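Submission sheet (multi-component)
Chains listed below:
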Amino acid sequence: MEYTVHKLARLAGVSSRTLRYYDEIGILKPARINSSGYRIYSQAEVDLLQQIMFYRELGMDLNNVKSIVTSPSFDPTQALLEHKRRLLERRTQLDVLIANVDRSIAATEGRCTMTDKEKFEGFVQQMIDENEAKYGAEARQKYGDEAVDQSNARLKGMTKEQHDESARLANEIETTLALAFETGDPAGPLAQKAADLHRQWLTFWWGSYSKEGHAGVAQMYVDDERFTAYYDKRQPGTARFLRDAIFIYTGQKA
Amino acid sequence: MEYTVHKLARLAGVSSRTLRYYDEIGILKPARINSSGYRIYSQAEVDLLQQIMFYRELGMDLNNVKSIVTSPSFDPTQALLEHKRRLLERRTQLDVLIANVDRSIAATEGRCTMTDKEKFEGFVQQMIDENEAKYGAEARQKYGDEAVDQSNARLKGMTKEQHDESARLANEIETTLALAFETGDPAGPLAQKAADLHRQWLTFWWGSYSKEGHAGVAQMYVDDERFTAYYDKRQPGTARFLRDAIFIYTGQKA
DNA sequence: CATAAACCTTTACGTAACGTCAATGTCAAT
DNA sequence: ATTGACATTGACGTTACGTAAAGGTTTATG
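Outcome: structure written.
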């Protein structure tokens, strides 16, 4: 199937100006130009436009999108998986916002009180998202393939049950950690429970366990922006808090 | 509690430039200016900023936001209820996008085909949103309460409808599954129909769908005695049969 | 066959919501 | 007393298009 600008624009729900602009900045060029100078798009361009729109939906600026989709190592399928991960993240952020608005409604009715900080929960995420959009591409380029390969290899070796178990653990870590963070005490029972869950989770992936390795990973959560972003996505400072808790758990000096 | 620009900015996760701009365009003026010309914000401004940020999150432009929040008939509590409605809408749209990306992944793996139109499902909504943002404020001012009431009714109706739909699906799964079990063939059309119904049912509850999740649940039906008991209550072996059918449906190896 | 409607083209200026200097003043703490 | 972190007001820059102008092409219709 071939499309002119307007046809493709209507299909995708964007303006023809947008497509011309995308051509201008070299992010989406038509398959060919016909004898009258009209832009003609075909299958590959339809799929690429979809990819671009996923990135845009997730708030990435066109410059970044361009550097990703024009990269020779761009893998559409991997990108789709990444889109899905980001969309799910976005949905949990939306849930935080919805919880926020719920509490705000309750507050106006005097059914509860909110601190000023709580009034902006779920919005702050934006900053992190933008940060990810800015540095994410670069980080992917740095660690990308290596990390992907590694995790894929592990994944193949795991049975589905193991996979489920690890997912369950990861989930429990997240919720326990969120609760522990509220207490503010990395030595407290909740934080130590989170650390222990994290040990279990790690043992899954490594097949073995060592206190040194555990502490090392914990430190990495603070040093490596990718992990920091992941753990801090709900509450900034969570990565650091987890590291502190794990240091105490492993008996490491902080 | 009183805030300077920077303090309030950090609290809300925006830049101080943004707050100065909001002052400039008259959308959020500080409570007062101190003797050195500093902007000082207090409680009312914190709450108003939250409102503004909800509108912004939903894609409304500042001009519209201004005309709403500066209107003498602006009702913060009503606005919060409206925010919630819009956020929930936004979430269902996100779910459409997630379903889209799921199908797109399946398509790249050759597990299904997609029309070009389907590739942009969930994006198109944007246009409607923007349209709503443009003319919504005006319409609300004109029809305000009536529209709100209507949408509230729709929400209530929707949830009941959804509830009914899921019950209907569950019922259909049970009968189809019973018939399919008679055939003894988990790859047959009846069993596959049951698997598909089960997918629909699952999508209802999860808001999204993934093969892995589907297969995981299927395995759980066999592993967890509570579920096994439920599905086997009529015919022992039904849980296992359903799992096999779903594994075939999702293309999983049994 | 003409002609209007509905496309397409490039060029170019406009806009929203800030980001980012620059030049300057204020405040708290060492 | 000075340093560093804050504040102020301009003012120009940027992104991702919108919008209009001036014109060529295609297609449907009288």
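Remark: The radius of gyration of chain B is 26 Å.
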